[in-house]
Amino acid sequence: PSAGKVTYNGVDVFTIPNRLKRHLFGYVEQEFVPVEGDLFEQVRLYDRSISDSDVLEALDFVGLSSLVGKPFHVSGLSQGQKQLFSIARAIVANPPVLLFDEITASLDARTEEHLVHVLFKAASGRTVLAISHRESTMRSARNLVLIQEGRIAGQGTPEKLLARLKGLEAEEGAPEDCR
Which one, 78, 79, 164, 174, has least CB within 10 Å? Predict the structure, then answer.
């Protein structure tokens, strides 16, 4: 941040060693970034503290266990499967916090629905922060925070906040990014 700081349990996150961050924060980004290696390395990301059984459990959790034991090539994966791999990466170290960045942006409605189901399972017992511009994804949240021009412009349940945004759409002069 250019001002202030981000803390986790009172500790500045920038002071946490990188090797520990993965065990505190699971991150799923918009685009899956493959690494060199087999199916297990795609999930493990070379972290030797994560066992093969941990990887198998994460793959099973997201519904990709059918790929185990078959020839594996990232290029043969659908966009939805890539996002499921990203979720497996995020949860394999069992972190208490999950961060999701526009993870349904390039998915069709059916794949998004399946992914959101997996996310709900993964969110159990964890803190989840998700960034999304898709209304369908926002509706699955417990609480929404609308950020506009770097400031909180609204906060509440999906129903209340989305209804407020729809009201803004109808008003002349509503901010462009609220439409």
Answer: 78
